[in-house]
Amino acid sequence: MEIKVLEGVFDANEIVAKENRGILDKSGTYMVNMMASPGAGKTSLIVKTLEGLSGDLKSVVIEGDIAGKVDAERVSDTGTEAIQINTGGSCHLEAKQVNTALANLSLEGIGLAIVENVGNLVCPAEFKLGEDLKVMILSAAEGDDKPLKYPLMFSESDVLIVNKIDLIPYTNFNLEKLKETVIKMNPGVTIFEVSCTNGDGISEWVEWLKKRIKG
């Protein structure tokens, strides 16, 4: 019985995710689902991405958090429209929450919608939102063993961004070992090495994303 209930939840989510896909296709908006653990640097990367795309693509951001609106305020400070979703305890965003956000945004002329999912390395990977791209962010401070502990997140993501690479000299983080593990799990993954602190790798990520959006 429990399995049937869970399957029902995923099936319902899938239906709404397809609705979201239709909305985005109609408006010509490309949607990225940013996933990571708390503190990995999701918001910092989003801000850097928006800065890199400034003047080239008009964007909106959907912020998912259990509570608060600090991240949405940080995004708004860039001049980008942001809408906040507070889950009230849920560890991930679902397609219906994103659907409500899309209904409250004007997507006319919007080339990119970024979803900052709730900080979690488990649940977000299980729920489709209708996105074009799943992006996983891992900070060097978290350790290179995370793919072995949370394989679904790494195997489901289209892109892995290793953030805070400026900290690697001060940790035992093995970047080559991490990449080898992830590529074995997910041969099609694209990996970027960045630092939101000193800007390393940001332009490479932004240019790659720009090409994906413009197709």
Tell me the distance between the termini.
Answer: 44 Å
What would you report as the Rg, rounded to the nearest angstrom? 17 Å
In spatial order, strands of the major sheet run 3-2-4-1-5-6-7
The portion of residues assigned to helices is 40-55%
Number of domains: 1
Structural class: alpha/beta
Number of strands: 7
Determine the number of helices (DSSP H or I, runs of at least 4 residues).
8
Poorly predicted runs are 1-5
The fold-level CATH name is Rossmann fold
Please give the largest β-sheet: 7 strands, parallel
Listing every helix as H and every strand as E from the N terminus to the C terminus, the arrangement reads HEHEHEHEEHHEHEH
How are the SSEs placed, and which strands pair?
Layout: H1 2-27, E1 30-36, H2 42-53, E2 59-65, H3 70-76, E3 81-86, H4 95-103, E4 112-116, E5 133-139, H5 146-149, H6 151-156, E6 159-163, H7 175-185, E7 190-193, H8 202-214
Parallel strand pairs: 1-4, 1-5, 2-3, 2-4, 5-6, 6-7
Short description:
Helix content is 41%, strand content 19%. It contains eight helices and seven strands, in the order H-E-H-E-H-E-H-E-E-H-H-E-H-E-H.
Give a structural overview:
By secondary structure, the chain is an alpha/beta fold. It has a single domain (2-214), classed as 3-Layer(aba) Sandwich (Rossmann fold), CATH 3.40.50.300. Helix content is 41%, strand content 19%. A 7-stranded parallel beta sheet has the order 3-2-4-1-5-6-7, with helices on both faces. The longest helix is centred in the N-terminal third of the chain and has 26 residues, at 2-27. The N and C termini lie far apart (44 Å). Mean pLDDT is 92; it is low at 1-5.
